[in-house]
Design goal:
It contains five helices and no strands. By secondary structure, the chain is mainly α.
């Protein structure tokens, strides 16, 4: 019986991990722009599309995106950026809307980011999220 539970647990764990993986080919490519910064490139995107729900006044899911410091703190202290690895970034997965349950902004709550905007966010993360 112990072997059965161990096998079952391992199967569930592997299935859960596989479900969390995102196929990188479904993500828009990172922009080829050099020197992407939060203040110059990312904050304007967040100000237009994210701050209403993730700003100083309201922090849905305990996430603030109104400053570099808050963005890098993530949600509940969990890293959503993954510096240098945008394809693995929860932030990118959400704004690229590759998972309906985690898509940002949610359906009916605002216009989705464009592929170009997601590409700029990816470039920023790949360049170290400065």
């Amino acid at each position: 019986m112990k072997h059965l539970w161990t096998t079952l647990f391992a199967t569930v764990a592997v299935a859960s991990f596989a479900a969390d993986k995102v196929d990188p080919s479904k993500l828009p490519p990172a922009a080829k722009t050099a020197g992407v910064t939060f203040a110059k490139d990312i904050k304007p995107i967040f100000d237009k599309s994210c701050i209403k729900c993730h700003g100083e006044e309201k922090q849905k899911a305990k996430l603030r995106l109104d400053s570099l410091e808050w963005t890098l703190k993530g949600a509940d202290g969990e890293d959503i950026v993954n510096k240098g690895k945008s394809a693995e970034s929860e932030l990118v997965h959400s704004v690229a809307r590759v998972n309906e349950d985690e898509a940002m902004p949610p359906e009916g709550k605002g216009d989705p980011l464009t592929k170009e905007q997601v590409g700029i966010i990816r470039a920023w993360i790949d360049q170290g999220a400065k």
